[in-house]
Amino acid sequence: QKEVEQDPGPLSVPEGAIVSLNCTYSNSAFQYFMWYRQYSRKGPELLMYTYSSGNKEDGRFTAQVDKSSKYISLFIRDSQPSDSATYLCAMSGRTYKYIFGTGTRLKVLA
Amino acid sequence: DTGVSQDPRHKITKRGQNVTFRCDPISEHNRLYWYRQTLGQGPEFLTYFQNEAQLEKSRLLSDRFSAERPKGSFSTLEIQRTEQGDSAMYLCASSNIVGFTDTQYFGPGTRLTVL
């Protein structure tokens, strides 16, 4: 079993839809949770950074962490075609070594 | 705004050749990371430096791989006797520890193709 599980998709949604992206993990020592966006053949770009449990909102993006269920989510409101990319979850314990999910490919249709 | 830069962006080499990649982190970032990413997968940790000290190496980093960060500034990743299985995107990231926060910023990557 991988430490971090993420559905690879692809996920296709119409423009303006609310997108929900999720990861599950097995290591209870993880306490730092990140979401990155990666366009094709580019490096990952940090979207959200969350410490421990709770919600964090930044513009159209909301990150949620449920440590009791070992489950994290990223919500994108009013999705745009420019949001089409691969979304990677990453997490770490106190070692700061990030463990990434495989990424979910998102396509927002105009 | 000078982010993390990597050079070259693309490298095509023949099996058995040596290759070297360079990473220039965000200035004054004290931590530097190397990851490898293959198609359809997330980045996998290879190694990281705190200033010039290499603090952790993944078991993915065979003895053909070596990384350096002289003087705690730029870093190089060398692969000796390349194999076709080394074909991947090599990503560099840097961060600056603030309290318990270690936000890693990635460069554009170097795409390696071994023929």
> Total strand count of chain A, please?
11
Overall shape of chain A: globular
Helix content of chain B: under 10%
Mean pLDDT of chain A equals 93
Radius of gyration of chain A from the CA trace?
13 Å
Q: What does the average pLDDT of chain B come to? A: 92
Structural Rg of chain B = 14 Å
Task: Flag low-confidence runs of chain A.
Answer: none
Helix-strand string of chain B: EEEEEEEEEEE
**Low-confidence runs of chain B:** none
Structural classification of chain B: mainly beta
> How large is the count of helical segments of chain B?
0
- Quaternary form: heterodimer
* SSE class of chain A: mainly beta
| Beta-strand percent range of chain A | over 45%
Distance between the termini of chain A: 37 Å
Question: What can you see in these coordinates?
Answer:
The complex is a heterodimer of chains A (110) and B (115). Chain A is mostly beta strands and 110 residues long. Helices cover 0% and strands 55% of the residues of chain A. Chain A contains no helices and eleven strands. In chain A, strands 2, 4, 5, 9, 10 and 11 form a six-stranded mixed β-sheet that branches. A five-stranded antiparallel β-sheet of chain A has the order 1-3-8-7-6, with no helix packed on it. In chain A, strand 9 (85-92) and strand 10 form a beta hairpin. Chain B has 115 residues and is mainly beta. In chain B, the strands form two sheets. In chain B, strands 2, 4, 5, 6, 9, 10 and 11 form a seven-stranded mixed β-sheet that branches. A four-stranded antiparallel β-sheet of chain B has the order 1-3-8-7, with no helix packed on it. In chain B, a hairpin with a 2-residue loop joins strand 5 and strand 6. The radius of gyration of chain B is 14 Å and the shape is globular. The termini of chain B are far apart. The A-B interface holds A 4, 6, 8, 32, 34, 36, 41-46, 49, 51, 88, 90, 92, 94-103 and B 4, 6, 31, 33, 35, 40-45, 48, 56, 89, 91, 95, 97, 100-109, 111.
